[in-house]
TrEMBL record:
Protein species of origin: Pampusana beccarii
Entry-linked InterPro entries: Leu-rich_rpt (IPR001611), Leu-rich_rpt_typical-subtyp (IPR003591), LRR_dom_sf (IPR032675), LRR_domain-containing (IPR050216), LRR_R13L4/SHOC2-like (IPR055414)
Name of the protein this chain belongs to: Leucine-rich repeat-containing protein 39
The gene coding this protein: Lrrc39_1
GO CC annotations on file: M band
Primary localization: cytoplasm
Transmembrane segments: none
Positions of the Disease resistance R13L4/SHOC-2-like LRR domain: 78-159
High-level lineage: Eukaryota, Metazoa, Chordata, Craniata, Vertebrata
SUPFAM superfamilies found in the cross-reference section: L domain-like (SSF52058)
SMART domains xref list: LRR_TYP
Length: 172
């Protein structure tokens, strides 16, 4: 009987050891998968940034991001690496929303988002104190936030052909 008890005890110990090893291997596989996913995201971001940089031109001393007739439903956060931009010209890109990080582009003088599918203007637009032109005609915008009155340099506002636009802030 003693021999049987030793075998059962040994079997239980081996089983526990294998369960611990399998658990460790599964954890390592999970970490490796997460690392590969992060690495893939980094490479995709670099590729997207390289694609965006190809769209930057210098014209009349201005750094301009010009994208026309391409599918860009959203703008990637890697665009923040190009905060030196002074003008955005994004036409017919199917853009659906202006990113909230728009306020970080303090050098932006012209923001031309005409002919897209944008439904709202974020309040962060009010942080663009150097903005002189805001063009968003031919979109689906319903309202313009009051914060737009903080754009003290704004000389031209073009909201035409936004059929659902209800009204503009009284300050504008």
């Amino acid at each position: 009987m003693t021999d049987t008890a030793v075998c059962v005890g040994t079997f239980t110990a081996v089983k526990t050891l294998w369960e611990v090893r399998i658990h460790k291997i599964n954890e390592e596989l999970k970490k490796e998968k997460e690392f590969r996913q992060r690495l893939l995201l980094v490479w995709e971001e670099r590729a997207t940034l390289a694609k965006l940089k190809e769209k930057v031109i210098n014209e009349d001393g201005r750094a301009i991001l010009r994208i026309e007739e391409e599918e860009w439903k959203t703008l990637p956060s890697c665009l923040l690496k190009l905060v030196h931009l002074q003008e955005w010209q994004l036409h017919r890109t199917s853009l659906q929303k202006i990113p909230q990080f728009i306020g970080r582009f303090q050098n932006l003088v012209v923001l031309d988002l005409s002919w897209n599918s944008i439904e709202r203007v974020p309040k962060e637009i009010g942080q663009l104190t150097s903005l002189q032109e805001l063009l968003f005609s031919y979109n689906r915008i319903k309202s313009v936030p009051e914060e737009i009155s903080n754009c003290v340099s704004l000389e031209r506002l073009e909201p035409s052909v936004n059929r659902n636009i209800s009204d503009l802030p009284p300050q504008v």
